[in-house]
Structure formats: C-alpha cells, structure tokens
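User: Hi! I'm working on a homework problem where we have to compare a predicted structure to a textbook description. Could you give me the structure for the chain below?
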Amino acid sequence: MCFVASGIPVNRIEIKQLTPALTARWLSLKDNQLSATYWLQSAQQTTDNFLSRIGSDITHKNHTWVLVSILFDSSLNPASAEIQYFANTVHNTVKYSLEKGKNEKN
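Assistant: Happy to help. Predicted structure tokens:
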C-alpha cells in the first residue's frame, strides 16, 4: 500500500523464499521496471504475513517488530545470488539489532 500511495503502481506480489530462513513478499512495480521486497521481523520470528505478525502479538506479548521494506531501482530476480546474499545480510543485521536492543533493556 505504501508504494501505491507513493504513486508507484504494483503489478504483482508473490511469496518468495529469499534465503532458507527468510520468506518474503516480492513485488514487481511500475510495469515491471522496479522490484521490491518486504517482510516483518522480530528478534524471534520473521514472517511475510501481517496476520501472523498480529497473531504473534496476541500470543507472545512484548515482541518488538520492524517492517523491512526494500525498493530496488531496477527489475531483479529474487533467486539471484546477489539478492539472496543481500537479503540474508539485511535479515541478520536486523535480527542482531533487535536482539541487542532486547538485551540492553534487561
């Protein structure tokens, strides 16, 4: 919805396994000229589904969640090694940051 609100038309949204630990939504945008991906992440869990994230709040309170949203400036293949490496790096960095923040609160 954020892309549409920003004037970037969404052509397709698919569920993609970007890495063994990361399932995300993959978007084709602007007549397939651009690609984007997003997922929701806490220190304990990652999901591509907003309902799963809300359900987790109900059953496991006190999770801090972030929405990771990445817009690429060209059309890319989510199965490419470069995307998999990049997604893995971002996922691990966010996880580390969330875990570090949780430990600093204790």
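For your comparison, note the following. Helices lie at 2-5, 50-59, 81-105. DSSP finds three helices and five strands in the chain. Good luck with the assignment!
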